[in-house]
Amino acid sequence: MAHNTSIDIRFLAGIVLAAASASICALQKPTYGVDVHFAKSAASLSAKEREGLIKALDTVRNRDWCAFEVAYVSVYEDPREGPPDHVKKLASSRADYLASLLRTYGVPASLVGVETRVGQVYGGDQSAPPGTVQIEMVGGVGAQPCPHPYSPGGFRVEQRR
């Protein structure tokens, strides 16, 4: 009988662990990533790339996250684009440009984050074209119906006090 009891306890422990894992998975924050590509040594996007960014933002708006938390820009100081001083200035210009563009397209300024990765190629992938920048948008997991209002740009945002 003791043997059956230990099996039952292990079985119940397995169920508890599975339920805990399912709960953690259910609370994962929604994300949406988009890569944009700058022409070599360019500090602004082509019209086609801007259209792609607008479509990505519209996709996130339509998902109605509760609430939109951040648009995080990862700019790479890609050594394939020139001497270190040039690459550093270029990455900084791209970061400023994208932060401004995201604000122009409706992302609240307080929810735009920028990171410059020094001496790196996008994702460590040498086959990625120079000038590739990643934008990752993250949403929250909130109550439904969502109590947060829409920002003027169309994103549900938590009110800051």
Account of the protein in words:
Strands 1-4-2-3 form a four-stranded mixed sheet, with helices on one face. The longest helix is centred in the N-terminal third of the chain and has 25 residues, at about 1-25. It has helices at about 1-25, 45-65, 85-105; strands at about 30-35, 70-75, 110-115, 130-140. With about 160 residues, it is an alpha+beta fold. It has a domain at about 30-140: 60s Ribosomal Protein L30, Chain: A, CATH 3.30.1330.
Secondary-structure topology with pairs:
Elements: H1 2-26, E1 31-37, H2 47-63, E2 68-76, H3 84-104, E3 112-117, E4 132-139
Parallel strand pairs: 2-3
Antiparallel strand pairs: 1-4, 2-4
Number of helices: 3
Mean pLDDT: 82
Q: Give the distance, in angstroms, between the N- and C-terminal Cα atoms.
A: 60 Å
The CATH architecture of the domain at 29-139 comes to: 2-Layer Sandwich
How would you sum up the major sheet? 4 strands, mixed
Order of helices and strands: HEHEHEE
Classify the beta-strand content into a percent band.
15-25%
Side by side, the strands of the main sheet go 1-4-2-3
Rounded to an integer in angstroms, the radius of gyration calculated over CA atoms is 21 Å
Would you tell me the structural class of the helices and strands? alpha+beta
Q: Assign an overall shape.
A: elongated
Uncertain segments: 1-25
